[in-house]
Amino acid sequence: MTLGRYVLTAAVTVPAGVPSYGAAGPASTTSGTTSATPGALTVITSQVLGAGTFLLSWTATLATAAAAGDANNLGLYSGTTLLAASVNAGTVGTYPQGASDTYLGAGATVAVKNIAAGSAGSVYSASLTATPLAGGDNKGAVAWTGAGSPAGWTAGDFPVTFLAGTPLWLDNGGDLYATIGAANLMAFRDGTDAVGHSALSN
Questions:
Q1: What global pTM score does this model have?
Q2: pLDDT digits (tens, 9 = 90+) for 155-176
Q3: Is 70 exposed, middle or buried (0-12, 13-18, 19+ CB in 10 A)?
Q4: I want to staple 176 with a disulfide (CB 3.0 to 4.6 A). Which of 34, 55, 94, 153 is the partner?
Q5: pLDDT at position 146, please?
Q6: Terminal CA-to-CA distance of the chain, rounded, Å?
Q7: Over the stretch 37-82, which tens digit does the pLDDT of each residue have?
Q8: Which pLDDT value is given to residue 16?
Q9: Which domains does the chain have, with CATH numbers?
Q10: Cα distances (Å, whole numbers) of residue 73 to 44, 63, 91
Q11: SS (HEC) of the chain
């Protein structure tokens, strides 16, 4: 990150952010089936989702040759994190699971996997439905942990206008600098631009 001190040469309006997902739906559903005797952590079905809060609904199915070791042996995962383990008997059948209300960062892969290896000859199936409940921002989640943390900026819920002559500290490799545009900025001049202004930082 390289900070520079600038002055706006023209009024610039930064538009509101566009959520990567709407506040409620549409839902997306995927499903899949393993080959016989799947190894541990075999992905049965998965989806890559943007930032936001999702209701994750899923169904676990034991299709053939189920045994006691297949009981409660499917899991709902976000990346490598187990969100929920299945509740199912070790017998052939379809077992709807409780839905999980989960916040995800941008680019999260949500999957249904078998936790341990399946019993000999067993075949696992699953379906996964992701329903957006609250939208994320158009750049994904930005974490700020206090002074000294990496600077981050995303468009807000409403447009913001910066007036010509406004002094700004900007990361010249950052999103706000790119959004304002180099053509609307000039280098800050000490003694000329410092009179009667306070600076905003990115």
A1: 0.57
A2: 565 677 888 888 888 888 777 7
A3: buried
A4: 153
A5: 37
A6: 11
A7: 999 999 999 999 887 788 899 999 999 999 999 999 999 999 999 9
A8: 66
A9: 3-17+139-201 (no CATH), 28-135 (2.60.120.40)
A10: 12, 13, 12
A11: CCEEEEEECCCEEECCCCCCCCCCCCCEEEEEECCCCCCCCCEEEEEEECCEEEEEEEEEEEEECCCHHHCCCEEEEECCEEEEECCCCCCCEEEECCCEEEEECCCEEEEEEECCCCCCCCEEEEEEEEEEEEECCCCCCCCCCCCCCCCCCCCCCCCEEECCCCEEEEECCCHHHHHHCHHHEEECCCCCCCCCCCCEEC
- The label of the residue with tokens 């506040």 reads 23
For residue 140, give the nearest of 20, 23, 35 by alpha carbon: 20
Whose tokens are 């019993």? That residue is 119
Question: What mean pLDDT is reported for the chain?
Answer: 81
Tokens of 180: 């304002």
